[in-house]
Known about the structure:
- By secondary structure, the protein is an alpha+beta fold.
- It contains four helices and 24 strands.
- The longest helix is centred in the N-terminal third of the chain and has 94 residues, at 70-163.
- The chain is elongated, with a radius of gyration of 41 Å.
Amino acid sequence: MMAPPPMAAPAAAKKGGSTTLYIVLFFLCVISIMAGSFYFMNQSQAAKSARDVEKIQAEAASKMKDAKSDFEKQQIQADAAEKTRAAQRKAEFTGKEAALEARAKGKEAQLKALEAKVNSELAAAAKTVKDANELRAKAAFERNAAATRLREAQAAKAKADASGKAIDKKLADEKAKLAKDANAKVAAANAKAGAATNQARAEAAKAVALKKSLDAVNAKLTGATAAKAKSIPYWKQIGGKLKQVSISGNKVCGVNSADNIYCKTNLHAGNWYQVHGKLKHISLDGNSLYGVNSADNIYYSPNMSAKAPWKQIGGKLKQVSHAGGKVCGVNSADNIYCKTNLHAGNWYQVPGKLKHVSVSNGKLYGVNSADNIYYSPNMSGNWKQIGGKLKQVSMSGNNVCGVNSGDNIYCKTNLTGGNWKQKPGKLKHISISGNKVYGVNSGDNIYYGSNWNR
């Protein structure tokens, strides 16, 4: 019999036991989450989700071993559970979307087959109608010819009766035979024309029935497309209350109604942490922060840590936007100012008037006091008016989104051309970064969405 393993030292047992307990609880939580959601996944999605969960488990287990307090372990556990739920939700909806795509493609194939059949039947019906018309015309010709033969036969008989000559009688008999043959042709032509007419009616009825089937498939296909759109949620609510937000990559910061500043480094999971200071508006780019306070004073921090080393920047602005080492903003008179060094150098005035501005890649988007929208390909103010009305905009690369006075959301993927497309939901403020979007509504509730440009 094998000897039992040696017991660990008391101190190590206490720490290891606590960590093991949290790991076991975490794995049980993961299993309970997976049990409900795996039902909706196909095999490939399930396999990918399982790999993602294994990675989350491994990361969590590693972090728990290095955790120094029960509170830290609880935070690790909560964050890992949220990541697991997010991975499962993504796999679930991807699986549903794939199933709906396959069903829609099947319906499309059925639709194309029915369309081909309908076209074939319509062509056959048209040919049958044409044949019937030709046969009716031929029957009419035969009737006219038979009438002529009958008149000729009657005239020949009258002549033969009057002359009594054998030759006239023979001619009268021949004419009578021709008239009889003509009547037979008339009967045959009428029969063919009648049959062709009946066939044409049958072909038309078949085409009509197929058209009804085609319409039914179209209706189902439209329903499947609508179901697909309905099955994929656009927004996920994020805990907390903020009046304005700014995102960059996978990071987000915002300010609440009391001008307190909060940030987090995961858009859809994790907890907010408070950054010291007070701002009414904030801009995030990479790790750096720009913002203005209730007195329109301007502040810059090279990082987004809880103890951000704020530096006051000269000037007064009510709103700012910075990206790629450049910053622009507007003051209380809607004058526009920019500079190309975040923490040094002087502001220069850009021509025009805007109440809100957004900068990305050295380009500007903004809205004025009348909610008119303007774009400049540079920071010199070569403005071009863009159609539509928005009260606030956010630009990222060649993408732009904004909200109007009714809090409706509009986006487009071409800065100067194309049409605005309305997105679901209501927001009073929006921020985009790539294909990710953050926003807050009139109740300061916070929402996150991805693939907005899909």
